[in-house]
Amino acid sequence: MNAFLTGVIFLVAFTATGNCIECIHCYSADGPDCSGEAKSCAEGVTTCQTLTVLLKEDGVDTHKVVKFCGTGEEANSIYWEASLTTSYQLETHSCQTDKCNEEPPQFTPSDNTPNGVKCLHCLEDHSTECNTEEIIECTGDLNQCLFITGSVCHDGADYYTCAHRLCTNVANAEQHPFYLDKYIHKLEITDGINLE
Fold first, then answer.
1. 52 is in which domain, residue-wise?
2. Does residue 91 share a domain with residue 119?
3. What is the mean pLDDT of each run of 10 residues along the chain (196 residues)?
4. In sequence order, which residues have a C-beta less than 8 Å from that of residue 8 and are 6 or more positions away?
5. To the nearest 5 percent, what fractions of the chain are helix, strand and coil?
6. Which residues pair with 110 in a beta bridge?
7. CATH number of the domain that residue 86 is part of
8. Could you give the C-alpha distances from 96 to 23, 68, 69, 84, 132, in angstroms and in order?
């Protein structure tokens, strides 16, 4: 009887393990890809994910990549924001087969064609306000204006409080990838400004 139960437990464990998807797990803070080992995801997880960040600042590109087991049936998504000198792009890619996130991620090229939307533009370090009369012309899919303040600026060593006004591609604050982040003090998405 004990041998039978041991065999059943082994079979159930083997079957449960066999149903788990395997995903590559890795992180890179300084390159457009990362490599790591395949790991079995938790039972019920059916998605591998790759998150990519591309920060363009004063002509310098910085990439970050994270690959891991997903948490559900996540859809692919892309978030963009841009100022006169900086753009930030966060992409999420999901797939549903073993080690499907192993290949180098593909970064979606930005569309720099003006779209007619105009936003106020400013950056104030060590402040929660950012009032300006400077205007930025939005491009591509960036058709909304973003105001964000909180501990979101980085000086190479630490985060500090600042305020931004720039263009974005999300329709409302709840769609912003950091909407629930405790370091965000205020986040507003508004329509483009009317200059008439």
1. 22-95
2. no
3. 34 46 95 94 93 92 95 84 94 95 92 95 95 94 96 88 96 92 94 76
4. none
5. 10, 45, 45
6. none
7. 2.10.60.10
8. 9, 12, 10, 38, 46
